[in-house]
Design a protein that fits this description.
By secondary structure, the chain is mostly helical. The protein has one domain (about 5-175). The protein has helices at about 15-45, 50-80, 90-120, 120-155, 160-175; strands spanning about 5-10, 15.
């Protein structure tokens, strides 16, 4: 369990595991697909700078994704009994996140290996690029799916149109 409270007294805010989880979890969901795009462009254009930038993005995404994942249990403890939280949506999100984090870590490790072999064995490094790109694309999909399930925890209206339609009908009935 991760019970972290960071007090930003001058701003009147306390950040706990739930806040930090939500803040951090968006980073890999956004940057890993961006890194995949940069890597694909770097491979296509044979641009070493774009390729290396993508590797560093994957490593950063893995580090921050790992932190977000570790904060997930603490976040669950904090929000599972909060009004408006769909508790039944937590478990599917957690399971999808467990699969996604394995791919994120593998992506980070393979990026480190690819970077390390750039100067030692350029041939091996170039042979790792396409598998790394494929892994980045799969990882992006898994992160997107885990994020979509995470959104259902607090925002069921975004995924169930009948809630929005029913609430809109109730609002119209109240206006009469």
């Amino acid at each position: 369990m991760c019970y972290i409270d960071i007090n930003f007294y001058p701003f009147g805010a306390v950040l706990n595991a739930a806040h930090l989880h939500v803040i951090l979890v968006h980073f890999p969901v956004i940057v890993i697909p961006l890194g995949a795009l940069l890597l694909a462009l770097g491979i296509w254009r044979k641009n070493l700078t774009l390729q290396v930038t993508a590797y560093y993005i994957f490593i950063g995404g893995a580090a921050i994704g790992g932190a977000a994942f570790l904060l997930g249990d603490g976040a669950e403890e904090i929000i599972e009994h909060v009004a408006g939280v769909v508790e039944s949506a937590i478990e599917p999100h957690e399971e999808a996140s467990e699969l996604a984090i394995w791919f994120v870590v593998a992506l980070g490790v393979l990026s480190i290996i690819t970077l390390a072999t750039k100067s030692l064995s350029p041939l091996l490094s170039s042979r790792l690029q396409l598998p790394l790109l494929a892994l980045a694309i799969v990882t992006s999909g898994l992160l997107g799916y885990a994020a979509q399930l995470g959104g259902k925890i607090r925002h069921p209206e975004a995924f169930d149109q009948s809630i929005v339609t029913r609430e809109s009908a109730e609002d119209r009935d109240d206006d009469d």
